[in-house]
Amino acid sequence: MRWLERRIIRLLLGALVLLALCAPCSAQRWRWSAKGISGSAETRVFGPVRMAAVDEIAEGLGYTVRQEKSELVVASGTGLRFVHGAALVWLGYSVIPLPARTRVEHGHWWIETDAALRVFSQFLKRNGRNLNLQWSGAAGPKRVDPPEPPRPKTPPPAKVVPPPPVVRSSLRLPGLKNVRWGGEGQNIRAVLDLEGNEEPAFTADGRKVTVQLSPLEPSLSARLPVSREDVLLEIAGGNPARLNFLHPGRSAKAFVLHEPHRLVIDFKRDGASLSEVPPPAIRPPERERPPAPQPDRKVLPDKKQHPNRPATVKSKKLVVIDPGHGGKDPGAIGHGYQEKKIALEIATRIAERLRELGVNVRMTRTGDTYPSLKDRTAMANRLKADVFISIHLNALPKGRHSNGVEIYIMALPTDKDAMALAKIENAEIAEGGAKTRKKSDRRTEMLLEILGNMQQNQKISESTELAEDLFKAGQEARLDMKRVAQAPFWVLRGAAMPAVLIETGFITELAEVRRLAQPEYQQKMAEAFASGIVSFINR
């Protein structure tokens, strides 16, 4: 029997040795570095993915981290939030997608290794530290690899061509996260999602728009979409990086929007219809053919139509318009006016204008009734709507003043005012008074956690584009457009389509609410927003 005991002991020792040898294959410390700084973090393999401990990276960079319920927060001017179980990271009010869900195990927070350094590089740039973190190999916690042995000298080549000079820029420029394209035919739009708070430098010269930005990541340059119909994007590296948009046969208009920070460039055909424009220079020339005869179509007369907007939709779409509040819930009250009444009047005019433009429209209420907040988006989901628009009037406490239209998407709050407004709009009228309001406020706070789920944020990008089109249309109509912002509104929660909430003006401002109550101004607002909706659904 002794031989059997010795055999078992040998097998156990062999298993322990194998475990010791395999352990480093799963858990290792990797070094990261950038110009002037370096550190290390533990990495582990979870299934097919190797992940890095982001709390260790943050502390190695000198930042304080704290855990708040299901989030890890990296404290700074522009904060960073990792959400347990979500395949995204919040950088300020922007969402960065991840290749795998965030994990919390072994006392650390983990995300995929390459994504970890990409996220922290963007975080550093957003907070004024222009650094690109790189992994520099595996290392023990206190071990430093010896320097590489000197390479043998090789004779220089016969002819050395000096590298081109690097042109340095004294401007502080934002970085580029992505380029998005929208629209087609008469109107094409390019949206440059930017990093940082600096203003981009851009110029329009005939058939070219040039944008100057911070140096581009090589991987970003390789994956940028470079053309859309007859608009071509040329990417020139260097410092600063230059993006040249070539647009023969079109005029261009560029403007900057904030929260999130982006540059929008609109390209419009110069005067003629599509059949009258010669083939663009950036495409191979085509043999000219006479335009095919078009059947007569009945077009509704519209003397007030904006010249930069399409006349009708290209395919039948369904838009759900939600007049805020109603019935037992008057909404905000100011200077003798009720929010629910004016919101219904404006919403009705928007619906009528959309129908004139060929859009299928449904309203969550057409009279003084009160559908609950969850019933409104539930109706839009049931009808499989393409767009959801909720119409409201803004309000401020006594002693505070403001004017203008604000457009909100469902996301983390842009600022304290946005959060306060969300709490007001989320308060449903019910028995219980102050108790009910406290309950509503708690539900609003809970939305901040819900927003960490990727499913709840899948329409943020499209909702942002919808908000941009509405904002642009309002500017063209010379409405007092204040901003596009973000806040956790219950009425937008769960919408399976792009959804925005429009605060048409401040009911607490006497001059503005009087203007909002005028039929002429309501019609002007309705035509502008209907035009913005049509531009979005025609993309």
Reconstruct the topology from this structure.
Elements: H1 2-26, E1 27-34, E2 37-46, E3 49-53, H2 54-60, E4 65-68, E5 71-74, E6 80-83, E7 88-91, E8 94-97, E9 103-105, E10 108-112, H3 113-126, E11 134-138, E12 175-184, E13 187-195, E14 201-205, E15 208-213, H4 218-223, E16 227-228, E17 231-236, E18 241-246, E19 250-257, E20 262-269, E21 318-323, E22 333-334, E23 337-338, H5 339-356, E24 360-363, H6 373-382, E25 387-394, E26 405-410, H7 416-426, H8 434-450, H9 460-476, E27 481-487, E28 499-506, H10 510-516, H11 519-537
Parallel strand pairs: 21-24, 21-25, 25-28, 26-27
Antiparallel strand pairs: 1-2, 1-11, 2-3, 3-10, 4-5, 5-6, 6-7, 7-8, 9-10, 12-13, 13-20, 14-15, 15-18, 16-17, 17-18, 19-20, 22-23, 26-28
Helix pairs in contact: 5-11, 7-8, 9-11
Describe the structure.
- The strands form 6 sheets. The chain has a 6-stranded antiparallel sheet.
- The protein has 11 helices and 28 strands.
- The protein has 539 residues and is an alpha+beta fold.
State the shape.
globular
Task: Specify the structural class.
Answer: alpha+beta
Mean pLDDT: 75
The main pleated sheet reads as: 6 strands, antiparallel
Rg measurement, Å: 28 Å
Poorly predicted runs of 5 or more residues: 20-25, 140-149, 155-170, 272-309, 446-457
Task: Briefly summarize what is shown.
Helices cover 28% and strands 29% of the residues. The chain has eleven helices and 28 strands.
